[in-house]
Amino acid sequence: MTRHARNCTAGAVYTYHEKKKDAEASGYGTQNQRVGKDSIKGFDCCCLTLQPCLNPVITPDGYLFDKEAIIQYIITKKTEICRKMKEYEKQKRREEAELAEVAEAEKQSKINAFLRTEKNIAGNSNSLLNKINNKDSTPSVSNMTEGRDKHLPSFWIPSKTPSVKAKKIEKPGKHVLCPMTGKPLKMKDLIDVKFKQVQDPDDKKSLIVKDNRYMCAVTHDILGNSVPCAVLRTTGDVVTMECVEKIIKKDWIHPITGEKLTEKDIIAMQRGGTGYAQTNSNLEGKYERPVLQA
Q1: Which of 290, 288, 278, 293 is nearest to 35 (CA)?
Q2: pTM for the full predicted model
Q3: Helices in the chain by DSSP H: which ranges?
Q4: pLDDT tens digit string along 58-113?
Q5: Nearest by Cα to 64 from 275, 274, 271
Q6: Residue 251 C-alpha from the chain's centroid
Q7: What are phi and psi of 194, to 5 degrees?
Q8: Which of 28, 43, 84, 206 is found 20 to 30 A from 6 (Cα to Cα)?
Q9: Over the stretch 255-288, which tens digit does the pLDDT of each residue have?
Q10: Which residue, among 51, 81, 19, 35, has the nearest Cα to 276 in the 3D structure?
Q11: How many CA atoms lie within 13 A of 12 on its CB side?
Q12: Which ranges carry the Nitric oxide synthase-interacting protein zinc-finger domain (predicted)?
């Protein structure tokens, strides 16, 4: 195939290669890119600060937080809930007052209508003449009569412009929600986590810059994002899921303390988490752009 044939643009079909080439040049279409290693949150990093935890705690759902960060989050959310509840109660009292005013106005209008009816019944001898006169005189529809010229809307005057009703405030929930799962979260649900550091006398680096910082408390396997881990609720020790399957689930005894364990005492740690995905199951970023039609 000659060079002219490969670059021929006289064809009647808009090929996939031409569409892809034009999309890259014009900025149309969808871009897919796999997230790099630097974009993945470390397994020992806080889900809020995205930094290595100084005092790690874990939720029953397996999300790791720094104790200071999550406590500050809970306190901030409780303060916000109290503020929203006060605004909601203020709005509720205002609505009740408005309903009371409407009910009072309706009651007064009924009383006035009753008084007018009684007055017509007990009218004087000129009531028939008054009815005839009232029938002949039809009310004017002009905006300039009966003093209505002074109440015309003037939209260029701030005091005459229509006002926007305040947005209705919904009743806030009583519970602080987990920032990752959206489930209710309490301080007593947080479990302290104990990472076992890798003891290497030849490695003089600081802990935060080490590639291999922690290891399994039982098997001493190096922990990382690619290694599924679990936390033992009773002691807070971090072990690998392989250790859980092959050692702990045989007799359900803690391999370090010897105490009995149950299924609830094993909390699987959630790994990874990026700006594009919460877990390592999907590490591809997608950017939607206008589609170039053929």
Answers
A1: 278
A2: 0.64
A3: 3-6, 16-26, 67-121, 127-136, 241-243, 249-251
A4: 999 999 999 999 999 999 999 999 999 999 999 999 999 989 999 999 999 888 88
A5: 271
A6: 42
A7: -115, 110
A8: 28
A9: 888 899 999 999 999 876 444 434 455 566 666 6
A10: 35
A11: 0
A12: 4-78
